[in-house]
Amino acid sequence: MKTQQSKTLFDKAQQYLVGGVNSPVRAFKSVGGTPIFIEKGNGSKIFDVDGNAYVDFVQAYGPMILGHNNETVTKQVTSALQDGYAFGATNEKEVQLAQIVCETFETIDKVRFVNSGTEAVFSAIRLARAYTGKDKIIKFSGCYHGHADTLLVAAGSGLATFNMPSSDGVPQDAVKHTLIAEYNNIESVKTVIENNKGQIAALIIEPIAGNMGCVLPSPQFIQALQQVAKGNQILIIVDEVMTGFRSKFGGAQDLIGLKADITTFGKIIGGGFPVGAYGARDEIMQKVAPLGNMYQAGTLSGNPISMACGIATLQTLQQSNPYPQFEKHGAFLEKAFYESAEKYGVSVQVNRFGSMLTPFFTAEKVVDFTSASKANTEQFSTFFWAMMEKGIFLPPSQFESWFLSAVMTDEDLEQTKLAIDYAMEQVAKAHF
Ligand SMILES: Cc1ncc(COP(=O)(O)O)c(C=O)c1O
Ligand SMILES: N[C@H](C=O)CCC(=O)O
């Protein structure tokens, strides 16, 4: 694997960008070595500046569900660009994308577009507080909801990767209303509620956790969560930034049977352009300005290029329906993991939901952040670099999800299966 050009660019990047990156997980810090610099993407693959090709399981951390440079999407974005990029006045494309979201989600009458998942989530929390008149919120350990102050506690993704319980610069005052419960543990939720009776506006949850690696909620947990929230007048914010339109044309909330009061989006609804959104039934959304007194605004919110890309991406997903294929491909990879792990005596747990998956290097079932944290990150690093050597690009962290794209071919999957076998062998050689 040649890396000279990436190394040269990374040296230069570190002169001008903090740590050479614009988002911490991209720095490869937890797996060591130099991050690759991407030149271009096409279909299921990305290509780095040294000429290496990789089957892409990162997909920009989710949005590129149709793969790179999808012909229909590129055409519609190019056409939108000819008409101008931002107006500070409403454009029909905003209405079109909003209509798709509202018609797809039973729990949503209206949406508001913003520019990122982070913005969507902190706005949703403000809305829940405005609607209920209460301040406290519950968040689950290991879930990540973006980098707003209130939510940078016991968070997953980069914070889990770098073993940071919280971020410097967040005042104690900003997190004093954030209460932490454990994923898949209803007793922990009940205890938090009992200790804060009548003060909790909302709980926020990743319906399928993707930011401590992929972790699925049990049906019993979801059912009890719904009941407990309802019984205590606590709104449920379902954070679908990662899961929205990923495992079905709609939300993971439908698949697991969780009824959202407020839903947040990002990633796929912008198809790779900056976007976020939050939505709810009318009664709640009427609190948002200009209808109500909860203020939230944005210079570039609903910009026509993100909207065009989102519309084209969702329409293509709806027409092509890649979801049954995701199931087939996901199951193929899951089997490949377990077969190779057994062959080389490596302990692995593969957690998967449709097109999201994480292989955890541990013998214990992974059901929450505590069990996820027991995964062997050194084994993961060995595995990661062996996969890179064989042309497979993965998130450079044990605590992220891999994503399948609709354009992955049988050949890509065979290549990935062979790479998994090789990488497991390297793990066994290096660690046993
Ligand atoms: C579930 C979830 N919520 C919120 C966010 C924040 O989104 P963004 O990175 O677009 O701000 C992310 C990803 O970063 C996410 O995975
Ligand atoms: N896990 C994060 C979002 O889903 C990864 C994106 C990032 O923080 O760069």
UniProtKB/TrEMBL annotation:
Question: Mind telling me which InterPro entries this protein's record contains?
Answer: 4pyrrol_synth_GluAld_NH2Trfase (IPR004639), Aminotrans_3 (IPR005814), PyrdxlP-dep_Trfase (IPR015424), PyrdxlP-dep_Trfase_major (IPR015421), PyrdxlP-dep_Trfase_small (IPR015422)
- One cellular component (GO) term of this entry: cytoplasm
Intracellular or extracellular location(s): Cytoplasm
Provide an example Pfam family for this protein.
Aminotran_3
Q: Which SUPFAM superfamilies match?
A: PLP-dependent transferases
Its UniProt entry gives the catalysed reaction(s) as:
(S)-4-amino-5-oxopentanoate = 5-aminolevulinate
Q: Does the keyword Disulfide bond apply?
A: no
Principal location class: cytoplasm
The entry sums up its family as follows:
Belongs to the class-III pyridoxal-phosphate-dependent aminotransferase family. HemL subfamily.
Under the subunit heading, UniProt states:
Homodimer.
| PANTHER family to which the protein is assigned, alphabetical | GLUTAMATE-1-SEMIALDEHYDE 2,1-AMINOMUTASE, GLUTAMATE-1-SEMIALDEHYDE 2,1-AMINOMUTASE 1, CHLOROPLASTIC-RELATED
Q: What is this protein called?
A: Glutamate-1-semialdehyde 2,1-aminomutase
Q: Which organism is it from?
A: Phocoenobacter uteri
